[in-house]
Amino acid sequence: MRRLLSSLLLCLALPAGAQEFTTYKGHGGPIMGLVVTRDGTLASASFDNAVGIWTGQVPRWLEGHDAAVTAIAEGVDGSLITGGDDFAIWHWGDTPRKIGQHKGKVTSLAAAPDGTAIASGSWDGDIILWPLGQGAPVTLPYAGAGVNAVAYSADGAALFATTSKGDLLRYDMETRDTPRPMVRHGFGINRLHVGDGWVAYGAVDGGTRVIDAESSAQIADFTLDRRPILAMTHHAATGQLAIGDGEGHIMMVDTNDWRITRDFRAMRQGPVWALAFSSAGDVIHAGGIDDVIYAWPVALLDTYDPAGGDTRSFLRDANTMSNGERQFMRKCSICHSLEAGPSRKAGPTLHGVFDRPAGALPGYRYSPILEGSDIIWTDTTIDALFDQGPDHYIPGSKMPMQVIAQPQDRADLIAFLRTATNKE
Asked: I need a surface site. Which of 91, 112, 193, 238 has the fewest CB within 10 A?
């Protein structure tokens, strides 16, 4: 009774429109990144290679990446910058353009406070400063391992970075010399956020800590028995820090007195990969393995059941599927649909795939290697694709690296596809 009364009081305190759980549907793959821009627009990055701009329930799409979009940030001028599994950095200004290329997956982006550059971190170990005006890109001294996250201090004097080796580093942006180690965590640090004099970070082992931005002295430890930490965002005006983990929880921390205010099981299945507060800080948006963005009123988080998990076919009980269908769900279903017609998934539909030339489906933007390919999709070529792996069978294509090692598993997949891709 007490909980119900508290919820009713909170509802009355919330502004209209902030009291409802909301979903944003349209992407064709998991949600990898979220940002709410200064004008209140929600933007999303997805495994389907696209960026969604949500001014309502029907998005506008930004498409240029050749693989999953894994990082998204807003520039000082309000434009969006994205990075992806195609190693590319795109600037979505008045004239959208690719501004640079890493040698590995782009994991994180941060806009310099003075608006002159974008910092990007990559699994190739590089941190690159990309000028948004004149000038050449600048690569900072090597971070020592793959870079998982980058973030500027509010004054732009420092750039912080975290690595897969477990280091939290501080670069002096005046000298741009070898970075100063702030933390040697021992496990990869996935996410960080820089606040007013503090740095929060979350790691593979579930470690969630806050340190002083100058001395690196520990301010708070919010480590719980959940791992890994995969998302982090801060709303400065309300002092809220949101932290998402691999088990589907969102933990809310009050940065004014460093205490946990809410600990919510947000996702029924899988990780929280992306978080973003609304402009007012009264709504938290989250994305993960579902192709749906969820938004909850912060004040009512504890009153909701976990969201999602029931729409993702590859999460079904394996015992309910044949071996061939099971192989498809695990290896193919995130990128490919089986139905005729256009799809928002990262790859083209497999409907009618047999005896179709590779790279020939109208309306899909193939990689150049497939557009000129002489491959015809048959039992033999599909078997070879998964026996050797796409990276060897069609080097240079957008298909992710994966192999089905057992011949019987490949045969069962092909038999399933023979039936499932020819249904009218």
From this structure: 238
d(CA 242, CA 249): 10
Nearest in space to 299 (alpha carbons), one of 261, 267, 266: 261
Residue 343 — very low, low, confident or very high, per pLDDT cuts 50/70/90? confident
Torsions phi, psi of 167, nearest 5? Answer: -95, 140
Counting Cα atoms < 13 Å in the Cβ hemisphere of 284 gives 28
Task: State which amino acid sits at residue 294.
Answer: Y
CATH class for the domain made up of 2-303: mainly beta
Hey, what's the torsion of the CAs at 14, 242, 213, 43, to 10 degrees?
A: -90
Tokens of 237: 């005006």
Reference 322, options 414, 385, 423, 407; nearest CA is: 414
pLDDT, one tens digit per residue, over 284-294 is 999 999 999 99
pTM score, two decimals?
A: 0.87
For the chain, how far is it from start to end, CA to CA, in angstroms?
53
User: Residue 240 pairs with which residues in a beta bridge?
Assistant: 235, 254
Considering only CA atoms, which of 144, 177, 138 is closest in space to residue 158? 177
The CATH code of the domain at 313-420 is 1.10.760.10
As annotated, the residues of the chain forming the CATH 1.10.760.10 domain(s) are 313-420
- Rounded CA-CA distance 327/343 in Å is 21
Contacts (Cβ under 8 Å, ≥6 apart) of 69: 32, 33, 45, 46, 47, 49, 50, 51, 82, 83, 84, 85
CB 117 within 8 Å of CB 132: yes
Burial 14-51 (b: 16+ CB within 10 A, else e): beeebbeeeebebbbbbbbbbbbbeeebbbbbbbbbbb
pLDDT at 380 over 80: yes
**What does the pLDDT average to over 10-37?**
78
Question: DSSP letters of 182-209?
Answer: EEE-SS-EEEEEE-SSEEEEEETTS-EE
Higher-confidence residue: 144 or 18?
144
Can you name the residues that pair with 117 across neighbouring β-strands? 131
CATH 2.130.10.10 location in the chain: 2-303
Tokens of 390: 């796409």
